[in-house]
């Protein structure tokens, strides 16, 4: 079941279901409000989930707006990484810009794939992606008239841009098994009456249809 953010939130578990849409947020994959302390991060995660509940339940007035702060989004992404990739991703961080989200994480790709598929990793993947690597993913986010789109603009692993065949291999080997429903570089429908959202350094504002 999808949320107003397109597979971002799972109503059954009341938790974020991360796929590349931040995902809005997949994205992508992403300091966790660590600067505010653990208690603040827990509070922010609950606060974001409560807002998602309100949207899903249709309790936002027509034409209304709900804003997710960077601290809330970081707390939820950190929680999602703990749930979906407890041994494969850590030190997640999400930085917002004007229509852009950049996710940072330390990722062990082999553990991520093994957790998703349960299959042994081949020689090529072992040699290309062994060990924990710092990863940076930048995506451009746009939306209008109840639809949204996420375009990945840049991927860096250990500071090296990943392009061409290497990027395709990484997506097929690690992203698709973990997030088979990820929607990237194409428009997708948002649900629960969400008309559009805006992304800025101060947060993500979600606007409902009138």
Q: Please, could you describe this protein's structure?
A:
This protein has helices at 38-56, 70-84, 109-117, 123-129, 164-178, and strands at residues 9-10, 15-16, 65-68, 89-96, 100-108, 132-144, 147-157, 160-161, 188-189, 194-200, 203-208. By secondary structure, it is α+β, with helices and mostly antiparallel strands. The protein is elongated. The protein contains five helices and eleven strands; from the N terminus they run E-E-H-E-H-E-E-H-H-E-E-E-H-E-E-E. Strands 4, 5, 6, 7, 8 and 9 form a six-stranded antiparallel beta sheet that branches. The longest helix has 19 residues, at 38-56. It has one domain.
SSE diagram, text form:
Elements: E1 9-10, E2 15-16, H1 38-56, E3 65-68, H2 70-84, E4 89-96, E5 100-108, H3 109-117, H4 123-129, E6 132-144, E7 147-157, E8 160-161, H5 164-178, E9 188-189, E10 194-200, E11 203-208
Antiparallel strand pairs: 1-2, 3-11, 4-5, 5-6, 6-7, 7-8, 7-9, 10-11
Helix pairs in contact: 1-2, 3-5
Which descriptors would you attach to this protein?
210 residues; 31% helix; disordered N terminus; alpha+beta; six-stranded antiparallel β-sheet; three-stranded antiparallel β-sheet
Brief summary of the model shown:
This protein has 210 residues and is of the alpha+beta class. It is built from 5 helices and 11 strands, in the order E-E-H-E-H-E-E-H-H-E-E-E-H-E-E-E.
């Amino acid at each position: 079941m999808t949320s107003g953010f397109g597979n971002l939130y799972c109503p059954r578990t009341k938790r974020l279901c991360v796929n590349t849409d931040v995902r809005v947020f997949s994205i992508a994959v992403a300091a966790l409000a660590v600067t505010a302390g653990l208690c603040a991060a827990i509070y922010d995660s609950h606060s974001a989930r409560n807002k998602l509940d309100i949207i899903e339940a249709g309790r936002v007035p027509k034409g209304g707006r709900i804003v997710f702060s960077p601290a809330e989004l970081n707390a939820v992404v950190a929680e999602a990484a703990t749930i979906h990739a407890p041994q494969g991703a850590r030190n997640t961080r999400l930085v917002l810009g004007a229509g852009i989200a950049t996710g940072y994480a330390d990722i062990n790709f082999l553990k991520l794939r093994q957790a998703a598929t349960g299959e042994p990793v081949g020689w090529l993947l072992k040699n290309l992606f062994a060990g924990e690597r710092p990863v940076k993913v930048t995506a451009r986010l746009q939306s209008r008239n109840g639809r949204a789109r996420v375009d990945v603009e840049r991927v860096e692993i250990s500071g090296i841009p990943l392009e061409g065949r290497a990027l395709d291999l990484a997506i097929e080997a690690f992203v698709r098994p973990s997030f088979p429903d990820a929607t990237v570089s194409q428009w997708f429908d948002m649900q629960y009456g969400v008309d559009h959202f805006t992304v800025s350094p101060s947060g993500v504002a979600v606007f409902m249809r009138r």
